[in-house]
Amino acid sequence: MAASDHTILEQASDWLKAGRKVAIATVVETWGSAPQPIGSQLVIDDEGNFVGSVSGGCVEGAVVTEAMDIIASGKPKLMQFGVADETAWKVGLACGGKIGVYVEPIN
Amino acid sequence: MKRAILEQLLAARANRQAVALITNLETGEQRIVPRSAAAQDPLANKLDEAFRFDQSRSHDGAFINIHNPPLRLVIIGAVHIAQSVIPIAQALGYDVTVIDPRGAFATGARFPGIALHAEWPDEIIPKIGLDPRTALIALTHDPKIDDPALDAALKSDVFYIGALGSKKTQASRGERLRAAGFTDEQVARIHGPIGLNIGAKGAPEIAVSIMGEVTRCLRLGA
Known about the structure:
The structure holds 2 protein chains of 2 kinds. Chain A has 3 helices and 5 strands. By secondary structure, chain A is α+β, with helices and mostly antiparallel strands. In chain A, strands 3-2-1-5-4 form a 5-stranded antiparallel sheet, sandwiched between helices. By secondary structure, chain B is an alpha/beta fold. At the A-B interface, helix 1, strand 1 and strand 5 of A face helix 1 and strand 4 of B.
C-alpha cells in the first residue's frame, strides 16, 4: 500500500457520506517499469472527480471514464494498459511498462 | 467493494491494526485478513512475506492488498541528535513522537510541530502503545530516562530498538537489564552502539546511520 492511500480511502468514505457514488481503482499488477507501485489507488465519483494516482498521468483519463461506467453497472473490472512505444507514451507509461488496474464500485 | 469493507479498512488503520484485503479478481469476492490471523489463511505463505515487506501483490488470480498501519518512530531524548533524526524519519514516512521528562529539552521551540511528551517514558509509553510498525531509539545517555523506555520496548514487539552510547555504555546497560530479569537474547535486541557503521561524524551523519539501520531492520528483518 502506498503511503497516501489513507487519504484515498478516507476520501471514498467522505464522498459516500456526502451521497455521491464512488469507485476505487487499484494497481494490481505491473510488468517492466511502472510509474506507480502495486497497491496505488485512485478514487473516482460519479461526476468524474478523482483523487490519487495509478500511473504517471494519462491512464487516469481512461480509468476515470471506465470507472463512471462501472459505478453505473455495479460490476468490477480488471483493465490492462500497456505497452510499447508510442501507445505507452500516449497513456503515460513512458518506459514501456504494463499495468493492470482493478476498478470496483463501492456498494 | 462493499461499503462495510471500506469502513473496516479505515477502522483498522485508526486502531493501528495490520490487515490484508484479498480480492478475487475474477469474481470480485473480497475478504479482510488481520495479520494476527494470517497463519490460518489459505494464502498464509504469501501473506507473511507481504506483511513483512509491506508489499501488496497478485497471486493466482487473487490480489493481496496490504494495509499496514503507518510507521512510527519513538525517540527518547529531546536532544540535538533527535533534531537531525526527525526530518529524515519524516521523509521516510514515519510519524515521530519525542519523549523527554526534562522540560528544558522537550520544548515546542526546539521541536516545532512534533508530538512531544515532557513525561517519564514508563508513564507515557503504555498510553502510546508499541507495536510491530514502531521503532524506538533511546538517545539521552541517561539510564534514569533510557532504561525504563528500553524495558518497555523489550516487552513489546517493536521492529527496532536502538540505544546511543559507546560499547562500554552498552555493556553496563546490558548488565542492568539482565539484573532486571531480561535474558541475553532479549538484551541482544538492542542495537548499540546505535546505527550503521559508516564513520558518521556529527549529528546529521549519525542520524543517517541510525535511520539506515532502522530501514535495514524494517526491510530485511535484522
